[in-house]
Amino acid sequence: MEFAPVLHAEWIKIRTLRSQLGALAAVLVATTAFSALAATDADGSDPLFSVFFGISFGQVAAVAFGTTAMSSEFRGGALRLTLSAVPDRRRWFAAKATAIALPMLAVGLLTGLSTLVVGKSVLGTDGPAWSEGLRGAVGCALHLTLMALFAAGLAAVLRSGVATLSVLIPFLLIVSFVIGDLSGGVADLLPDRAGQVALHSTWDGALGPWSGLAVTGLWSAAAVLAGGWRLRRRDA
Description:
The chain is mostly helical and about 240 residues long. The chain has helices at about 5-15, 20-40, 45-50, 55-70, 80-85, 90-125, 130-160, 160-185, 190-195, 210-235. The longest helix is centred in the middle third of the chain and has 35 residues, at about 90-125.
């Protein structure tokens, strides 16, 4: 089977599952809502991050989307049925990753732009310039997409949505902040923190907006490659 119909089939799976559509909607709602709340109490030190503060919560929904989209294949023998239709595992896995990335990127762009508009309306003249804000909106979309792919790759390695979320959710909400407080610049290389450099007006560490996203991209690529290797090495 050619790549295009495989991709189309994987997209049908995603859009017909309410949990995955709900996770995509949660990315938009959580990021925009928490950003608006943060903007009302901003101190003006970093107007761009005040606008995009809610991505710390939106990325949790992005991780949930990537995890459930991938882990659904490992429940109830679904993967055996999938591979009976698409025997080429590499082609199927590439289509699955693409089907996760494209809607997440689209929702991420919508999230970034809506968050920017809401944040600037709350901050008024204290908000970031539009040029800086648009850079933040693009960075927001890329970061969310890379985090969804990172979660999908890890789900393919662990072959369990529960196990993946049990690792990533505490990491994003607790562990990353603890490590950040204790280890200084080393924490800036963590996937969730590196990508968020693009959402700051200024940065003190070695990573800039695009190099930070590149670090997150490397984490995501490593997870996806590990997931693909695991898929090829183990029976469905």
